[in-house]
Design goal:
With about 250 residues, the chain is α/β, with parallel strands linked by helices. The protein folds into 2 domains: about 200 residues, HUPs (Rossmann fold, 3-Layer(aba) Sandwich); about 30 residues, no CATH class. The protein is about 30% helix and about 25% strand. A 7-stranded parallel beta sheet has the order 7-11-6-1-4-5-12, with helices on both faces. Strands 8-9-10 form a 3-stranded antiparallel beta sheet, with no helix packed on it. Helix 2 packs across helix 5 and helix 3 crosses helix 4. The longest helix has 15 residues. The chain starts with a strand and ends in a 5-residue tail after the last helix.
C-alpha cells in the first residue's frame, strides 16, 4: 500500500502574532514553526500501517524542517511542493496536492483534521474531491482489511459513525486515533541525509486561480480590566447582581 501523509507547518501555539504591514497576513520574521499537531496523528498512523510512506508538504523552504520531523519519526520518503515565496488559498493548495497524489498513485492519504493556524478544515476535503477519492474527516479509529478500510468518527451525544470504504481514500485524523511517537536520535540523524523530492507549486496548479483573498487583518481588541468584589458572601452577591444589571446589562 502506498500512503501519503499531508503535513502543514504552522506557528507554535505560544507564538505572539503580529500583523504584517500590508494587513493581509502575519509577520513571519520571529515565529517558531512546528508540525501542525493533528498531523502528528496522521504521521503515526501511517507508520503503524506500514507499506510505502511519503510525507508531502507545501510551503516555503522553511517547511523542510517539518518534513524532516516526519522522516525522523519513521516516514520513508518526502516531497516538498515549493511555493517560492508566494501565497496560495485553500483551493490552490488542494489543487497542487491533488496533482501530486494522483501522479503518485497513492492508495491512502492521511492528514490532520485541520491545520491549527487558519483552522479552515478545507484543503483535505477539496484535495480528495479533485483527486476523485473517497473521504472521511475527523476519524479516531482506523482498521484496514485487504482492499477495505473501516473508520469511526465521533459525533454529538457520544455516538459514533462507522464507515467502510475502498481506496483511494483520504482521512482526516483526530486526537485519540493513536499516540504519536517521539523521533529517536538515530531517526533524527538519518532524516538529515534522506533525499527530499522538490516540485514547483506553480507548475502543479494547472491554471487553478485563488478563490479567496485575505485583507484587513486585525488583532482582537484588548480585554477590559476585570473587577474584584470585596466583602462577605452576601454583600458580594448583592454587588455582583447590581453590576450585572446596571453595567453589564445582562439581567
Amino acid at each position: 500500500m502506498k500512503i501519503a501523509v499531508l503535513v502543514k507547518q504552522v506557528p507554535d501555539t505560544e507564538t505572539k502574532i503580529v500583523i504584517n504591514a500590508n494587513k493581509n497576513g502575519i509577520d513571519e520574521s520571529n515565529i517558531k514553526y512546528i508540525v501542525s499537531p493533528y498531523d502528528e496523528y496522521a504521521i503515526e498512523e501511517a507508520i503503524k500501517i506500514g507499506g510505502e510512506t511519503t510525507v508531502i508538504s507545501m510551503g516555503p523552504d522553511r517547511c523542510i524542517e517539518s518534513i524532516r520531523t516526519a522522516l525522523a519519526m519513521g516516514i520513508q520518503k518526502a516531497i516538498h511542493i515549493d511555493t517560492q515565496g508566494k501565497s496560495y488559498d485553500s483551493y490552490q493548495t488542494a489543487a497542487a496536492l491533488a496533482k501530486v497524489i494522483k501522479d503518485g498513485g497513492f492508495d491512502l492519504v492521511l492528514t490532520g483534521k485541520q491545520g491549527i493556524d487558519y483552522d479552515n478544515g478545507q484543503v483535505t476535503q477539496m484535495a480528495a474531491e479533485l483527486s476523485g477519492a473517497s473521504q472521511v474527516m475527523v476519524i479516531d479509529k482506523l482498521t484496514i482489511n485487504g482492499d477495505k478500510a473501516k473508520v469511526e468518527r465521533r459525533i454529538a451525544g457520544g455516538s459514533k459513525e462507522v464507515y467502510e470504504s475502498g481506496f483511494p481514500l483520504f482521512l482526516g485524523c483526530e486526537k485519540g486515533l493513536n499516540t504519536p511517537r517521539y523521533a529517536s536520535l538515530p531517526g533524527i540523524m538519518k532524516a538529515k541525509s534522506k533525499p527530499i523530492e522538490k516540485k514547483s507549486a506553480d507548475e502543479l496548479l494547472g491554471g487553478a486561480t485563488a478563490l479567496v483573498e485575505f485583507t484587513n487583518f486585525e488583532l482582537p481588541p484588548e480585554r477590559a480590566a476585570g473587577k474584584r468584589i470585596e466583602g462577605e458572601p452576601p454583600q458580594q452577591a448583592a454587588q455582583l447582581v447590581k453590576l450585572l444589571r446596571e453595567e453589564a446589562k445582562v439581567i
